[in-house]
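Page 37, continued from 36.
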C-alpha cells in the first residue's frame, strides 16, 4: 500500500510511475482535485480500521510534522511500528550548531536530525506539532 497526500493537483507527482508497480495506491488532495477529498491521514485511518493487517505491517512516512503526529497516533492505536524521515532546518549539517535538535522519546535527551537521522523509528524521538 502506498498513500500519497498533496495540497492540490499542481503538487501531485509520482502517480504515473507508481501505477505501473504491483501495489495499491491511494491519493488524497486537501482540496479534492485528485483522489480523496481531504487529508491523507484520513485515508490511512480508514484503511487501518477496515483491513486486517499482517504482523509485518510497518508505516514509512515523510511530510509535515502535524501529519507525522497524526500518523504516530494511528500507529500507537494500531500497535504498528513506524519510520519517519523528518523535515527540519539543518544549518550546518554536521551537528555542531544544534539547530536541528528534536526531543528524544525518553523526554530528557535530544536527537540531531542531521547527524542521528533524518530517519527515525518509533521509540527514538517525540513527534511534536
Amino acid at each position: 500500500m502506498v498513500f500519497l497526500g498533496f495540497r492540490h493537483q499542481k503538487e501531485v507527482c509520482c502517480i504515473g510511475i507508481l501505477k505501473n508497480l504491483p501495489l495499491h495506491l491511494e491519493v488524497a488532495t486537501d482540496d479534492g482535485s485528485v483522489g480523496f477529498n481531504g487529508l491523507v491521514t484520513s485515508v490511512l485511518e480508514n484503511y487501518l480500521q477496515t483491513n486486517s493487517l499482517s504482523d509485518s505491517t510497518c508505516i514509512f512516512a515523510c511530510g509535515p510534522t502535524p501529519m507525522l503526529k497524526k500518523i504516530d497516533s494511528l500507529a500507537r492505536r494500531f500497535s504498528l511500528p513506524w519510520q519517519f524521515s523528518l523535515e527540519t532546518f539543518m544549518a550546518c549539517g554536521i551537528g555542531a550548531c544544534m539547530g536541528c535538535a528534536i526531543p528524544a522519546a525518553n523526554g530528557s535527551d535530544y536527537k540531531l536530525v542531521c547527524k542521528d537521522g533524518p530517519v527515525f523509528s518509533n521509540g527514538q524521538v517525540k513527534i511534536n506539532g
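The helical segments are 15-19, 40-50, 65-77, 113-116. Flag for discussion at group meeting. The chain has two domains: 1-51, 57-129.
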